[in-house]
C-alpha cells in the first residue's frame, strides 16, 4: 500500500474503507503498512488520548512472544491464535517453530485485511492456517476445515486471546464463549490472554480512548484487573498470575519504560488441569 492510503490492486473485497478497524490501527501502531488513511487518523486520535498506545502495542506483542516461548517450553506444540491481527514480525508460528520446527499454528481473525495478508504470508506452510471467522462464533471456529486439518484435539493446545477480548462485551455472551473454548481443549492445554484495562489509569485518558474506538468496527471494553482475572475461570494460573503486561515473566526487553505497574492492561497464562 502507498503512503497516500491507496491499495489499488489488492484491497480485499470485504474491506470496509468507511470505518477504521482495530486490526489496521494496531498494524499502524506497530509500524506496519497494511492500513489506510482512515485507520491512521483514528490511530493518531487514540495515541493523542492515551500516549502509551504505541509502547503499549509493542509491549503487548512482546508479551505474546514471551507467552508462546513459555508454552513451547511447557511442551505445547500447537496453537490457536484468536484475533491474531495482521501478520507482522515475530508471528506466533515463527516464534513457536524456532522452538520446534514441527509446531503448528492456526490464526483466526475477523478482519479481511488480516485474513488476506495472513493467507498470502502462510501460503505453502502446511503446519499453519488462517481462518476468517468471528471468535465469538465458537462452532464456526472449531469446525473450520483448515483448523481441523492443523490442530489435533487429542493433544494439548495453546489457546491465545491476546488483545482481543477487550473487543468483546459481556453482552455478546463472553462467559459462554470462553466456557465453550475451554470445553474443547484437552487437559494440559493453556490459555494465554492480554487485555486493556482502566485499572490504575487516569479516567479521562481511557474515556477519550474508548470514544475513539466507539467509532471503529471494534468498540473497546476496558475491564478491571479483577474482571480480567475472572476470564481465567476454571483454569489454573501459572506464576506470576494476572499482572500488568511488562511484569509477566519479563525478559529484559522493555518498550514501556514508565512505571510497569501502571501499564494500562493485564495479562496471564493458565493451564487447564482437568
Ligand atoms: C489489537 S489486535 C491484536 C492482534 C494480536 N493478537 C496481538 O496481540 O498482537 C486485535 C485483533 O482482534 C481482531 N478481532 C476483534 N474482534 C474479533 C472477533 N470477534 N473475532 C475475531 N477477531 C477479532 C481484530 O480484527 C484485530 O486483528
Task: Please describe what this structure looks like.
This protein is of the alpha/beta class and 274 residues long. It has a single domain (22-271), classed as Vaccinia Virus protein VP39 (Rossmann fold). It contains 10 helices and 8 strands. The protein has helices at residues 22-29, 37-49, 53-73, 92-99, 112-122, 138-143, 145-150, 174-184, 203-214, 225-230, and strands at 78-82, 104-109, 128-132, 158-162, 190-196, 236-237, 243-244, 265-271. Strands 1, 2, 3, 4, 5, 6, 7 and 8 form an 8-stranded mixed β-sheet that branches. Strand 4, helix 8 (174-184) and strand 5 (190-196) form a beta-alpha-beta unit. The structure holds S-adenosylmethionine (SAM).
Structural features:
274 residues, 37% helix, single chain, Rossmann fold, binds S-adenosylmethionine, alpha/beta, 14% strand, disordered N terminus, eight-stranded mixed β-sheet
List the helices and strands and how they pair.
Layout: H1 22-29, H2 37-49, H3 53-73, E1 78-82, H4 92-99, E2 104-109, H5 112-122, E3 128-132, H6 138-143, H7 145-150, E4 158-162, H8 174-184, E5 190-196, H9 203-214, H10 225-230, E6 236-237, E7 243-244, E8 265-271
Parallel strand pairs: 1-2, 1-4, 2-3, 4-5
Antiparallel strand pairs: 5-8, 6-8, 7-8
Helix pairs in contact: 1-2, 2-9, 3-4
S-adenosylmethionine binds next to helix 1, helix 3 and strand 2.
